[in-house]
Design brief:
The chain is α/β, with parallel strands linked by helices. The protein has three domains: 10-442, Amino acid/polyamine transporter I; 446-584, Rossmann fold, CATH 3.40.50; 614-768, 3-Layer(aba) Sandwich (Rossmann fold), CATH 3.40.50. It has 29 helices and eleven strands. It has an eleven-stranded mixed beta sheet, sandwiched between helices. Helix 2 runs antiparallel to helix 9 (190-200) and helix 3 crosses helix 9 (190-200). The N and C termini lie far apart (64 Å). 50% of the residues are buried. The model is unreliable at 462-476, 708-716, 746-752 and 758-768 (pLDDT under 50).
Length: 768
C-alpha cells in the first residue's frame, strides 16, 4: 500500500494562506471602505485581522492535535457528537466557501466589464463569473491543481502587484503630504467602522486554507501555526499600505464611491498611467481566479468529508477512477457557486430584481461572511469544550488565557455578524435552516458499519489456520489483479471462481479471487443475531471450493449487510478490485443494476456457466456504444493469447435492431491474431448472436445495456433477450459493463436515442 506523503513546507504553507487572502477583498472592498469611512478603513481592516487572528489561534491549536485535512468541520467532528450540530457546521462552511468564491468571481466579472470589455459590450451581470465558475469546476473535477512551487510563484506575483501599486502612490506624493491627507480624511464612526470590518473579514479567512491542508504539510504542529500567524500579519500590513495609498490618490472621493468595487483600477491609472492600470487589472483578475480555485478546493474538501461522515450523499466521498478527484463533491460545489452568482447578481441585483428583492454584491459578501463567522464561533467554543473533554491530549500549540481568548473570539465574531448587511444575514440563515430541515427529513446517509460489516474475515479454504496464502505460494496480493466474486449460493462458487480465474488469466493477469458471501438482514434486526448464520454460510462456501481443483489464489469471507449492492460496491472500492464477476440477475435484478451503474471497475454478469465451461471460442457482436468499446481490450488480449474470436454482424429483419458497422470492431483486432467474421440475417440482433454462438460453441460475450431505464420502458434489451434465448439452447453468456461516469451515462442515453431514431428512419414504413 502506498503511504501518504506530506510535501508542503513552511514556504508553501505561508504562500497558500497569503495567496488565498490576497483576492477580491482588497481589490474591491478597499474602494467601498474608503468611500464610506475614509481613512478609518485602516482601523476596520485591523479589527477584522484581529478577530481573524483570535480564531486563527484556535485553528492552530486544533491543527497541532489533528494534523489532517478538513479544517473547522474536522475539528468540530472530533469534539462534538451531535450530528445536527455537525451538519450545520459542515453546510455552513460549504456555503461560506462557495459564497466566498461567488463573491470573488462576481467581483471579477465587474472588473472584466469595466476594464477589459469594450464599452459598447454589455454582458448580463455575472456572465463571466458563471463561465469562470464552470471552467474552474471542470478543471478541479479533472484533477488540475496548483503545485507548491506554482503557488509560491502566484503569491509572489500578487504581492508584487500590490507593492507596485503602493510604490506608485508614494512616488506620486511625498510621505509628509501623505500623512497630512490621511489624517484629514479620518472619520470617527464606530458603527461604520464595525460594518466595514464585518465585510472586510472575508479577506482574512484565507488562514483556514492552511489548517484545511494540514494533512499535506510537513511537521504541521510547528509549520501550521507559524504559517497562519505570518500570513495574517503580512496581509494586514499590505492592506494598510494599500488603503493609505488610495486615500492619497488624486481621484476624487466621489469618483471612488461611484466606482465602488472597481475603484482600485481607477486609482492605479492616476498613479501609474495606463500601463499601471493594466497591471493592477490583470493582477486583480488573476488574484480573484486563483483565490476562487483555492476556495473551491476547500469547499470540495468539506463536501468530501461530509460524504465520508454520512452527512452528505456518499457519492460526495467517492474518488473518480480516472481523474482521482472527488468528482461529485466538485460538481455540487460548482453548482452551488453558480446558483449563488445567478441569485445575488443576475436575478436579484442591487439595483432591483424580481419581486422587488434587491441583493447584489454587498449582500453576497454578507451571506458568505455569515457562513464563515458562525462555524468560526463554534470552533472557538469547541476549543473550550475540548480542553475539558480531553484534558490529557497533547497540545503542542496552546491558545493562551483560555477560555478567555476563545470566548473573546466568539463575542467578536457575533459582533461582526450583527453588523453584516441584513439581506445577507436573512438569506444565509434562511438557506441554512432549509438545508438543516432537509437533512432532518432525510436522516443522513447510514453509517458504513450500519449497512455492512465483515462477519468472517478473509481466509483461504486451503489452510485451516486462516492463512490466505495461495496454493502456489504467491507473493502478497496488494499489487496483483483482484477479481471480486459475490456468491449467494455456495454451489455456484466453483464455477464463478474458475470463470474469474480464466477471464483474468486469458488477458495475461495473475489474479487474486476474492469470494464474498453476503447475508442480508432487515433494518430492525441486530447484526449480532445472524453472525452464526453468516459463519455457517462462509463455511459451506469454503467446503464447496475446497472440493474443487482450482489453481488460483483465492480467499473466502462472509459479510452481513442491509444493502447487498452497497456491500458489493463498498468492498470493490475498499479492496481495489479490478473486476467483478457475478451471476446475471434472477431474483433481485435491482442489486445487479446498481452494481452495473456504480461499480468502480469492470463487471461481468454470467449466465448458463458450468464448472467445466471453456472460454474458447468467444462470440461477440459487431457492437457499438461505450460498453462494447470497453469490452474490446479484454477480447483482444484473449485473442492474442490463442482464444478463437468470432465477430458477428447481424442484419435484423423488421424492428429487431439496427445493423452494425463491423469494420469498427475489426480494427481493434488488427494486431491481435486472426478473427473470424460472420454476417447473418435474423429476426433480432439477439437471435443472430445466440444462433451463431450455438453453432460455433464456446461462450457469447455482449456489452450491457446503455441505459437500463430506457431498456425496460422504451427500447427493449438485446442482452436480456440474448440471455433468455441462450438459456434455451445451452449457450453460456457473459454480459459486460464498464465503469460509467456522468459523461458516459449522458453519452449512452444520447447514443440510444440516436440509434432508435436511426432505426425508425431505416424502417420499411418510413422508407415508403
Amino acid at each position: 500500500m502506498v503511504e501518504h506523503t506530506r510535501s508542503l513546507g513552511f514556504r508553501v504553507a505561508f504562500a497558500l494562506g497569503l495567496g488565498t487572502m490576497i483576492a477580491a477583498g482588497i481589490f474591491s472592498l478597499s474602494g467601498t471602505a474608503i468611500a464610506e469611512i475614509g481613512s478609518s478603513a485602516v482601523i476596520a481592516f485591523v479589527i477584522a485581522a484581529a478577530v481573524a487572528g483570535i480564531t486563527a489561534a484556535s485553528y492552530s491549536e486544533f491543527a497541532s492535535i489533528y494534523s489532517e485535512n478538513g479544517g473547522g468541520y474536522l475539528f468540530s467532528s472530533r469534539t462534538f457528537e451531535n450530528e445536527y450540530l455537525l451538519f450545520g457546521i459542515g453546510v455552513s462552511l460549504f456555503l461560506g466557501y462557495t459564497g466566498t468564491t461567488a463573491f470573488y468571481l462576481a467581483t471579477m466579472s465587474e472588473w472584466v466589464q469595466e476594464f477589459v470589455l469594450p464599452s459598447a459590450v454589455h454582458l448580463p451581470h455575472g456572465t463571466s463569473a458563471v463561465g469562470t465558475a464552470i471552467l474552474l469546476g471542470v478543471l478541479n473535477a479533472r484533477g488540475t491543481e496548483e503545485s507548491g512551487t506554482f503557488q509560491v510563484v502566484v503569491t509572489g506575483a500578487k504581492v508584487a502587484v500590490l507593492l507596485a501599486f503602493v510604490g506608485g502612490a508614494f512616488a506620486f506624493k511625498p510621505v509628509s503630504a501623505t500623512a497630512g491627507t490621511f489624517t484629514s480624511r479620518f472619520v470617527l464612526d464606530p458603527v461604520g467602522i464595525l460594518q466595514i470590518a464585518s465585510l472586510a473579514f472575508i479577506t482574512f479567512f484565507g488562514f483556514s486554507a492552511i489548517a484545511a491542508s494540514a494533512g499535506e504539510i510537513i511537521e504541521p504542529r510547528k509549520t501550521v501555526p507559524k504559517a497562519i500567524a505570518a500570513s495574517i500579519l503580512t496581509v494586514t500590513v499590505l492592506y494598510v499600505f494599500v488603503i493609505v495609498s488610495m486615500i492619497n490618490a488624486p481621484t476624487p472621493a466621489s469618483v471612488i464611491a461611484r466606482q465602488g468595487e472597481t475603484a482600485m483600477g481607477r486609482v492605479a491609472a492616476d498613479f501609474l498611467g495606463g500601463i499601471g492600470r493594466s497591471l493592477i487589472v490583470a493582477g486583480a483578475i488573476f488574484s480573484m481566479v486563483s483565490a476562487s480555485n483555492a476556495s473551491i478546493l476547500a469547499a470540495t474538501g468539506i463536501g468530501n468529508l461530509m460524504g465520508r461522515q454520512g452527512q452528505a450523499p456518499r457519492r460526495f466521498s467517492r474518488i473518480h477512477p480516472e481523474y482521482g478527484t472527488p468528482f461529485w463533491s466538485v460538481v455540487a460545489c460548482t453548482l452551488a457557486i453558480t446558483a449563488l452568482i445567478v441569485a445575488f447578481i443576475a436575478v436579484f441585483p442591487a439595483e432591483g430584481g424580481l419581486f422587488g428583492l434587491n441583493l447584489g454584491l454587498t449582500a453576497l459578501t454578507g451571506f458568505a461572511t455569515l457562513n464563515l463567522l458562525v462555524p468560526l464561533s463554534v470552533v472557538n467554543l469547541a476549543l473550550v469544550y475540548s480542553r475539558r473533554k480531553f484534558p490529557d491530549v497533547e497540545r503542542p500549540v496552546k491558545v493562551p488565557l483560555s477560555p478567555v481568548v476563545p470566548a473573546l473570539g466568539i463575542v467578536a465574531n457575533l459582533a461582526l455578524i450583527y453588523n453584516l448587511p441584513l439581506e445577507g444575514i436573512v438569506t444565509g440563515f434562511a438557506l441554512e435552516a432549509a438545508l438543516i430541515l432537509a437533512y432532518v427529513a432525510w436522516g443522513g446517509a447510514p453509517d458504513v458499519e450500519t449497512l455492512s460489516e465483515v462477519a468472517v474475515s478473509p481466509r483461504s479454504p486451503l489452510n485451516a489456520g486462516g492463512d490466505v496464502e495461495s496454493r502456489r505460494g504467491a507473493a502478497p496480493t496488494e499489487d496483483r489483479f483482484r477479481v471480486l466474486v459475490p456468491v449467494a449460493r455456495p454451489v455456484n462458487a466453483p464455477k464463478y471462481v474458475r470463470l474469474a480465474s480464466e477471464l483474468a488469466t486469458a488477458r495475461g493477469e495473475d489474479p487474486v479471487v476474492q469470494v464474498v458471501n453476503v447475508t442480508w438482514i432487515p433494518d430492525q434486526t441486530p447484526s449480532e443475531s445472524v453472525v452464526d448464520h453468516a459463519n455457517k454460510r462462509a463455511e459451506a462456501l469454503t467446503d464447496a471450493l475446497a472440493d474443487v481443483e482450482l489453481d488460483v489464489h483465492y480467499t473466502v469471507e462472509g459479510h452481513i449487510c442491509r444493502d447487498i449492492a452497497f456491500d458489493v460496491l463498498q468492498t470493490a472500492r475498499n479492496d481495489g478490485a479490478d473486476a467483478i464477476v457475478m451471476g446475471y440477475p434472477e431474483e433481485h435484478p435491482h442489486v445487479t443494476e446498481k452494481v452495473e451503474y456504480d461499480a468502480p471497475c469492470d463487471v461481468f454478469f454470467a449466465d448458463g456457466f458450468a464448472e467445466s465451461t471453456d472460454l474458447s471460442p468467444v462470440t461477440i457482436g459487431a457492437g457499438g456504444g461505450p460498453h462494447h468499446e470497453a469490452l474490446l481490450p479484454w477480447v483482444r488480449e484473449m485473442a492474442a493469447g490463442g482464444t478463437d474470436v468470432h465477430v458477428v454482424a447481424v442484419e435484423p429483419a423488421g424492428r429487431g435492431g439496427t445493423p452494425e458497422d463491423v469494420e469498427e470492431t475489426l480494427r481493434s483486432f488488427a494486431e491481435s491474431g486472426a478473427v473470424q467474421t460472420h454476417r447473418v440475417n435474423a429476426d433480432t440482433v439477439a437471435d443472430g448472436l445466440v444462433s451463431t454462438a450455438a453453432e460455433l460453441g464456446g461462450i457469447l460475450l455482449v456489452g450491457a445495456s446503455r441505459t437500463r431505464f430506457l431498456r425496460r420502458w422504451v427500447f427493449g434489451s438485446t442482452p436480456d433477450r440474448a440471455v433468455d434465448l441462450a438459456g434455451d439452447v445451452g449457450v453460456p453468456v457473459l454480459v459486460y459493463a464498464s465503469p460509467t461516469g456522468v459523461r458516459g451515462r449522458v453519452g449512452g442515453a444520447l447514443f440510444t436515442a440516436y440509434r432508435y431514431a436511426r432505426k425508425l428512419g431505416t424502417s420499411p414504413q418510413s422508407a415508403s
